[in-house]
Amino acid sequence: MSDHQDAPVTPVEAYEPPYYVAVFTSVRTENETGYAETSARMEELVKDVPGFLGMDHAKTPGGLSITVGYFRDADALTRWRSDAEHHAAQQRGRAEWYESYTLHVAKVERSHAFTRGEASPAPSAG
């Protein structure tokens, strides 16, 4: 996904479980053609998926990128996976932008958060 150099650095909040995460870990090729525009479009598009909760991004100095998408339920994740424009971006990613990637999908059973200055962690199940 896109770089967020100007955005405040805060993680997606802890939601009441259960919910789902899609963890996309990738190493990119040197080809940058169209990547930033497509990434920005995917971020815009996923926000319209009912049940989309948010997204976190991280990138190591060595080039490993991690994007975690949070979804209220399996149906929301399926809607995103099935989106025609997202599917086209996936195909282009395999053809041009990714040296390798993994996708892990998991059901979150426990979740909590901490923010300095708050009295206690946000409640969670489990």
Describe this structure in words.
The chain is an alpha+beta fold and 126 residues long. The protein has one domain (19-108): Alpha-Beta Plaits (2-Layer Sandwich), CATH 3.30.70. It has 3 helices and 4 strands; from the N terminus they run E-H-E-E-H-H-E. A 4-stranded antiparallel beta sheet has the order 2-3-1-4. The longest helix is centred in the C-terminal third of the chain and has 14 residues, at 84-97. The N and C termini lie far apart (31 Å). The mean pLDDT is 90.
Summary of the model, kept short:
Residues 18-91 form the ABM domain. The chain has helices spanning 35-46, 74-82, 84-97, and strands spanning 19-28, 52-59, 64-71, 98-108.
Chain-wise SSE layout:
Elements: E1 19-28, H1 35-46, E2 52-59, E3 64-71, H2 74-82, H3 84-97, E4 98-108
Antiparallel strand pairs: 1-3, 1-4, 2-3
**How many individual β-strands?**
4
Tally the helices: what do you get? 3
Number of domains: 1
Strand content: 25-35%
Q: What is the CATH architecture assignment?
A: 2-Layer Sandwich
Helix/strand order, N-terminal first: EHEEHHE
Give the structural class: alpha+beta
By oligomeric state, this entry counts as single chain
Fraction in helix = 25-40%
End-to-end span in angstroms?
A: 31 Å
Question: What integer is the average pLDDT?
Answer: 90
Question: Which topology does CATH recognise?
Answer: Alpha-Beta Plaits
Return residue spans where pLDDT drops below 50 for at least 5 consecutive residues: none
Largest sheet: 4 strands, antiparallel
The geometry reads as globular
Strand order of the largest sheet: 2-3-1-4
- Name of the level-1 CATH class: Alpha Beta
Rg (C-alpha, Å) = 16 Å
Organism: Streptomyces fragilis
Protein name: Antibiotic biosynthesis monooxygenase
Keywords: Monooxygenase, Oxidoreductase
EC number: 1.14.-.-
